[in-house]
Amino acid sequence: MVLINPRLTDYFGISTPQAQLDFAIPFFNEDIPLYVDPFLLWASPSQQDQALHTAVINAFNQLGQVFLQGDQKKAVRTLVAASECDEVGLGASATRKGKRLGETKAHEILSLFKTIPQYGSAGFRHFEEIQFFIDGISKDRISDITCSFTKSFLVDYTIEQCRRHGIPLKDHTLPHVYDYRKNEFKPEGGVQLPFHPDTHAPLILVPKRWLRFGPWISYDDYFQGHCPQDDISHEADKLDRVDVLNFNRANYNVVDAYIREKERTFEDCKSDPLFAQIPVISARRKLAAIKKLPSGKNDNADREYEKMIGELFPSLLYPQLDFAAVQSRTDSGSLVRDLIFYNSQSDPFLKGLFDDYASKQLVFELKNVREVSRDHVNQLNGYMTDSLGKFGVLVTRNPLTAARKQRTIDLWSGQRRSIITLTDADVEQMVELFESKQRLPIDVIKKKYIEFRRDCPS
């Protein structure tokens, strides 16, 4: 069965929604747009996380000592190996493939142990500080280095989570696993991990509590609120990043003061959710804007309708349905936009859709028209193939005419396909439930399905 934007759990038939899992569900074909922030390990109340942060810092500082003691090639080679961790699938890559540090950049980083006396004598407290002295150190690089040095723990964590949830494992050889006894990366064979179904590449799971959109200790935060820009240049608005990095190298105390401030306010550092619902007031505003939109295509009203529904529904239906993608397709010369959701089967209604209609994913087709035509119904019907199951939702402005309603009933009678319709009134009711929190917005879809089945012959 072909899935839209497939994830590990959905592919292997694990229907638990993201909100109920301890780890971030990896996608097969792209990265998760979040990053491991090592500061979260430092700030964690968990002794295990704190110990892992200590291990990461000790490993990084050990590279500095190796570099200072003259074996620069070994230190550089080890840092290059640590700089990428494709197995975790975090970041912004559309292919789950990253690029390691070059040896020149790795040498530049390790040279900080020589050029800044405080690092040479006492080492780093947070290796993210390299952002303040070396150009081109991004948040995904910080994340990958952290994952590389904690890979042994993450492997054990992945195995435990997969066995708990019934995710298949197979043997792999990992080329770079850090050995804390020898202070180097070594290959490790016979490691049981989940895998990409096409490439069979190993996948490693990461706890959600470690993830942020950006590191707590960051260059941008430092530059905006703590960097003495006037001391560096009389034209602060034209200040170049290289100028700031050079200033920092000569004024370690300024960076150190910033780090101590970030440590002092550590309780404000929280992990970021993989999905955040929009506020109730935003949902109300989007509903009001939708109701004011004219039907049709004039002044791009159709695009605005699709955009606002696309922003509203993922929040209304979370966490019962995890959002998968906005899908665009052309059908009979008409551009059609759909919202695709993973079917978590998290309640009897969703489980029933999976059992009765083979719906691993649910499709919502968006139509900003005054009256749904026969072609519109046929378009959605044609899209309900084996890959998406035989249940679909038309999201449109007004109730179906008697003829169109009969067409949906005929499709159920002849092919056991179910198409229900959500109108402006239904969307308003969903927003009201979202606001009141007394019931779930997905209950409106349940109601519409029950009403549809009552109209169908038994």
Structure description:
With 458 residues, this protein is an alpha/beta fold. The protein has 2 domains: 261 residues, no CATH class; 176 residues, Restriction Endonuclease (3-Layer(aba) Sandwich). Strands 5-6-7-8-9 form a 5-stranded mixed β-sheet, sandwiched between helices. α3 runs antiparallel to α4 and α14 runs antiparallel to α15. The model has no long low-confidence stretch (mean pLDDT 93).
TL;DR?
This protein is of the alpha/beta class and 458 residues long.
Q: N- to C-terminal separation?
A: 29 Å
One letter per element, helices H and strands E, the order comes to HEHHHHHHHHEEEHHHHHHEEHEHEHEHH
Strand content: 5-15%
Main sheet: strand order? 5-6-7-8-9
Oligomeric description of these chains: single chain
Biggest beta sheet summary = 5 strands, mixed
How many DSSP-defined strands? 9
| Count of helix runs | 20
The tally of domains stands at 2
In helices, the fraction of residues equals 40-55%
Report the principal-axis shape: elongated
- Segments where pLDDT lies below 50 for 5+ residues? none
